[in-house]
Amino acid sequence: MNKQADLIVYGGTPAGIGAAIAAARRGKRVLMVEPSAFIGGLMTSGLGETDIRSVDTSGSIFGEFLAHVYEHYVSVYGENSKQTKECNGGLRFEPSVARTVMHKLLGSEPGIEAVCLREIVSVQMDDDRIVSIEVEDVQTGAKAVYGAQQFIDAMYEGDLAAMAGVPYRLGRESRDEWNEEFAGKLYCEYRTKEVLPGSTGEGDDLLQAYNFRLCMTDNPDNRVPFAKPDNYNRGDYTSLLDDIAAGRLSSFGEIVKLSRIPNGKTDTNNHHNCSCSTDLPGENLEYPEGKREVRERIARRHKEYIQGLLWFLQEDEALPDKIRLEASRWGFAADEFPETDHFPPQIYVREARRIIGRYVFTENDARLAPGTQRSPIHFDSIATGDYAIDSHATRKREEIGQNRALEGFLGFGALTEVYQIPFGVILPETVSNLLVPVAVSATHMGFGTIRMEPFWMQLGFAAGVAADMSQSSAIPVQQLCVDRLQDELIEARQIITYFRDVKADHEAHQAMQYFGTKSVFTSYEANPDAACTVADASMWLNMARALPGGARLPALPATDRIAPAGVDIGPRKLAKEQPYRLYWAEKPELSRAMAVRWLDATCRSLGVEYRGRFADGSGHSVTRGEFVTALYKLLKLSRRKR
């Protein structure tokens, strides 16, 4: 059946869900198309330990997801229950709970229609615009055409973008290409961060390893035993025997990473300190550009490899009894993934295509900007990220790794700062009605930190808002006013700048978010409650005049001693008065009276009405937060009049 919508979101991933909800809340008819039978991507397929360092760096739709998860555990088990405590404010969750929450979020928006088991097979273009996509029912082979005004590719693989002709990159850049210190070929011991010989920094076509995130339990009443796969190959795992004999490994929990989630379950992942865990480096290279049959074959190989690993750890008599006994305590959670024999349905595609967009995000964008106290500032920031620059291995065990490092495996948390994510990374240059919030424009190293579901979900939300604005304004996404997009995102509680000292409930929070993208602040402290100096106020006004809506902002009064009209100011001997350079050095703070005068003149200049807090606040001086709040409000009022 053919369908028509305002927006088509290809991919029911967290990013796709964020995009669909954002657009639907703004009145758009959204068709979300998912090629698998399940929505939610990795967050509903076993990834229950959220990859984020601080929730203060995330807001909007991801914050809603966390709140719903927390509310679920409170309503089912009680506020003081073990399960509620284990969910850690919503950051840790069972796959079934994540699925329930995702369906609840989608179900609350009547403007969204979700269609599963439909895979894109072609794209119809009109010049630089996508007109429609042709999809195939993966069960019956029946084809249909879905049309829309706007499109968002929210899939891990970037298939829609590729079919629309958006250029993309696979593999790793060299150190030289983007001046990334740790790019390219690298042998780094994960635990100690020691870089080993052989780390030449050359680029290649390799991808970081994939795996599945398993939901396991050691509760015998809810445990399904591990089964031996049909294609079991003991040789895949015998290197573990050497590791154990050499004392490098001594327990089941050192071979697979067991992260606890509620109700006695785990998010089981590859272990960083084990050279033979659940990852399968080097066997995913055909996946990004492969057809369905290729991807299914690769996913099946990864599944059978992991099943074989678990069988080996429980049953192989060459292992120490201690490890076999520990492994025998575990099985798949019986109440998770019943449709797929308790094994997660979604392979963990950590990285596939990366589009070449307006801006390429690199390792340097997530590190400290030289000469400042924060990561680089992006005027078009639409979200923030907070996770280590990270990559899983690209090659299996080699002699050069000295049994200490797998090539390409790295995690540089100490080097990674909270960072802004610019609009340019989701913005193709060649297609005027497409946004790509997952297969973003980044180097391998830059992608290594953006590639976390909380950030993808927020990028999806931003893409949904941008798609609505593009359609409503009848302009290409490349011509959107980024400042207006930021206004809308900030209003929706998206975090686009992180400050340590400006919490979400601070009255200056929105203004600080915005001006944090305009180089007003060069550290993670904005000091919103400190007195505002006339020097800072003048500098911020100079910057604001260059922003949309700011051209008519008047300068600050040159003095704070202006008498009201009608008051005789003579006699006065100006030549004997203190020079203003000395005066402002002695009295550097912006007084409320001076700020009120400026505000009155500004409102007259812009033709708007706004009182602000200047006259109502306590103390002689205006605070930094009060001034930027007024300045941001005036800019928004001016933009809305244009």
UniProtKB/TrEMBL annotation:
Native source species: Paenibacillus hemerocallicola
MF (Gene Ontology): 4 iron, 4 sulfur cluster binding; metal ion binding; oxidoreductase activity
Keywords: 4Fe-4S, Iron, Iron-sulfur, Metal-binding, Oxidoreductase
Name listed for the protein in its UniProt record: FAD-dependent oxidoreductase
Pfam families: FAD_oxidored
InterPro entries listed in its UniProt record: FAD/NAD-bd_sf (IPR036188), HdrA-like (IPR039650)
